[in-house]
Write a structure and sequence with these properties.
Layout (H helix, E strand, L loop, with lengths): L18 H7 L4 H18 L7 E6 L6 H17 L4 E6 L26 H17 L4 E4 L6 H4 L5 E4 L7 H9 L4 E4 L7 H10 L3 E6 L5 E6 L5 E5 L10 H9 L10 E4 L12 H13 L5 E7 L28 H25 L1
Parallel strand pairs: 1-2, 1-10, 2-3, 3-4, 4-5, 5-8, 8-9, 9-10
Antiparallel strand pairs: 6-7
């Protein structure tokens, strides 16, 4: 038998349904389109300081693994988003791709049946269905984009996106970000390093040409003119937090060449909570206090929250507890609701105090 010199470790190559086919089966609606456009504009107003009073809050499950639970969460969050809209711009965290440090469940797009079958074609359709349904509730969605192919399937339903700590340094992801249509945040590195995120901010603002796919799934040269709507996400790392006053100032000093007024978001989880989900709450309170005391470079917060607190492990064929994360631990809904109202009340008090002072 002739020895293979290519694909020696590849078991199978299966043609994937194209983005156009998925979008034709699951077209956007007037409601979803309106939510995306209006939220992106509102977020730009916050970014560039035209809206000085509201904080952006991206909140939701670490990862979505069950559509029904995602809709239940979205219905509750929509109620709070409406009640606090004068002070908070709330976007639901709808994460479908999970970068793994070693191995594990890679997210709903990669493995929608949670059984290791990795039916990615179904995963793309399921992710798009979930985004459509949540947008149709009137609630905007945000996610972390991991695979450069993914945006062609779902980016028209996203109001905000992030590039994660493991991929911020990647040229591929910086190029991808330069062509995305929504505002995007770059996390600092897993070791806590800020410079990689600052470099990513600068790189993604510039034009690029790179290899990608078009809506028909054909390998193409993608040319972009750069994404002006970028910001930093401070998430801690290397055993240290980076949400304090000195860390916010350091990040702002690294962005002196940017025209963005409020370029700093704080991820209340991960390194900033020392991976203790309950510590997200005091982190959020600290960031709110800084904002109310005059640090207007703060854009907002990123929170990991689910219907129930904590986490459970993923195993193939396992029966999961309802409402509990299968990736990172999250705060539960009761704490989430309380926290969002506390944030809104703090901002309302700041507005009142400023009005009295003037």
């Amino acid at each position: 038998m002739k020895e293979l010199i290519d694909n020696r470790h590849v078991v199978d190559i299966k043609e994937l349904v194209t983005p156009r086919q998925v979008k034709e089966r699951l077209p956007t609606t007037e409601m979803a389109e309106s939510v995306v456009i209006e939220t992106r504009r509102a977020l730009q107003d916050v970014l560039y300081g035209r809206d000085q009073h509201r904080l952006l809050v991206v909140v939701g499950p670490c990862s979505i693994h069950d559509p029904g639970q995602a809709y239940a969460y979205a219905e509750s969050l929509k109620r709070i988003a409406e009640a606090t809209k004068d002070h908070l711009l709330v976007i639901m965290r709808t994460y479908f791709e999970k970068p793994r440090t070693t191995v594990g469940w890679k997210g709903l797009i990669n493995d929608p049946h949670l059984d290791g079958s990795c039916d990615i074609a179904s995963g793309f359709e399921l992710a798009r269905t979930i985004l459509l349904n949540i947008n149709n509730m009137g609630l905007p969605c945000g996610t972390e984009l991991l695979d450069p192919v993914t945006p062609q399937y779902i980016s028209d339903l996203l109001s905000w996106s992030a590039i994660g700590a493991r991929t911020t340094e990647s040229q591929t992801h910086r190029e991808m970000a330069s062509g995305l249509s929504m505002p995007i945040g770059f996390k600092n590195g897993t070791d806590g390093s800020l410079q990689v995120a600052l470099n990513a901010m600068a790189t993604a603002s510039q034009p690029h040409s790179f290899v990608g796919i078009n809506v028909d799934g054909v390998t193409s040269i993608i040319r972009t003119n750069g994404n002006p709507d970028r910001h930093i996400v401070l998430r801690g790392g290397g055993g240290k937090t980076n949400y304090g006053r000195e860390h916010i100032m350091q990040a702002l000093e690294g962005l002196t060449n940017e025209v963005i007024t409020r370029p700093i978001m704080v991820d209340c989880s991960h390194g900033n909570s020392d991976k203790d989900h309950t510590r997200q709450i005091p982190v959020a309170h600290s960031v709110l206090k800084q904002h109310c005391e005059g640090q207007k470079g703060i854009l907002g917060l990123l929170l990991e929250s689910n219907l129930k607190p904590g986490k459970q492990s993923w195993d193939q064929g396992k029966t999961f507890e309802y409402g509990v994360s299968i990736t990172d631990a999250c705060i539960g809904w009761e704490d989430t609701e309380t926290l969002l109202y506390e944030l809104a009340e703090g901002l309302a008090k700041e507005t009142q105090d400023n009005a009295v002072a003037h």
